[in-house]
Amino acid sequence: MARMRTRVAAAMILGLALIVPGFVPGFVPGLESVAVAPAGMAGAAPLEGPAEAVPWSPSASEETGAEGPATATPWTGAPAQAEVYATQVSIVPGQRIDLHVSTPASTYRLRVYREAATEDGRRVELVQYRRDGRKGVDQRRLIVMDRTATPRANWMVTDSIRTTKAWKPGVYTILALDSRNTRSSAIVVVRTPEVSSTAPLLVVPVLTYQAYNDWGGASSYLDARNVRSYRVSFDRPYVAGPGLWWTTRDSKLAGFIAANSDGLQYTTDYDLSISPPPVFPEYTVLMRHTEYASKTMYDWVEDGVRVKGVMGLANFGANALYWQIRLEPPTAGANLRTAPREIVIYRNDSATIDHTPRDPVVGPTTTTRWRDAPVGRPEGVLLGAQFRAKLGSGSDDRWPMGVTRSMPWSLLADTSWTAGTTSVANLMTGEGDEILQGPEGTTTIEILSSEAVSTTNEIVHPGSTLRTFPSGGRVFNASTLGWASLLPPAEFDPGVSDASFGTLTRNILAWVAGRPTITPGH
Fold first, then answer.
1. How far apart are CA 453 and CA 517, in angstroms?
2. Taking the model in full, what pTM does it have?
């Protein structure tokens, strides 16, 4: 196949704080599109022109267990609309972002913005970069599918954005809008270059986002055809925005944490799986559904919290660290030769083994549940609780959580709540974790309890927990997918004031960090 080359004219730089012409507010629910220019922040450098699409025939990887070359065939099911993805999962300020855009329309435009939060809980969009008048290229013919049911877009780079050192760490949304009024979005995390031990670290769960992404018809979950992929690729757009997780409540949780902590640092579970920082942060925050983790990431978290006791851990979700994954280079149809661009997840448990082959790698990196053989490292030993069941309809049903008599008084400071009496309505939803007692010397208490009904009509008792290890490491586990939805402004009636639930969350962060509870006015 002949190499494709394309040239584009240099782009004029437009600064920050430009109101976006034609931008449709509400693309991310609850956000306001505003023009804000943080002091000293500079715009992006000019585009460098598209790169080449280079065919690749990979070889087998003995070290990682990859299966070697796979037969890739064209896939023709892509929609006729604007779609975009980025080469980079994350960058540090000053590095380049390469974008792959496909559209049958004549032109498209790009917007890049960073979300921030105000003190009253509102989220705003800080426009970081814009480019209009890009010539559309329909790249759907390059999409391939291989025997693992893994779709790969395989598109050439159409746009490159050279960031500057002034790009603040955070989560950046990339929006492509074409002249036919269709749109697509992706995210890139600008991570903190050097992690400090004196500030928290937010982990954006891009592994989970991609595991659930069924662009191309298959994800790591069974589809309508009873087909699932045991390799999912980063080289493709999201089927409906960034996994539907970030664009709904993960962004809200991140905004709350950023507004209530000094110097919040950013990374992804992908980066913790490739090269964890040598310095442990004050504490690490896991978002609503950090379901997938590599051995490298799991080891790093356990070492900092359970072994050394130098890092706290706050999990504001449920069903975290449930599946072990491996990251491997692509096996077919991709432009990148060696980068670990694919998540390998055979999910070799009794519920899925009939639908995928068994993992050829047997040992500590087998892609199974962390609690199962041959891995045998139950996530609840680290977290204090672990996944028990999907609840009700999976997202629409909600249950209250009651404040237990074991709730420490310091966590209730300035909430006006009473241990053993106060109940928080609509907090338990989606999936629930139940307490798991830890090893000898470990202290575990349940601070919020619930009774819910699983999707199989079983009564279950999920609860939020605090765990303290002999090393001094502290862990909070929310055990519900509903925590972010009740942060101010609450999306459901919590039965208590929005402000008091926010205060509880701040008190939990202080506890995880091992600091005295600091409340307004004290």
1. 34
2. 0.85
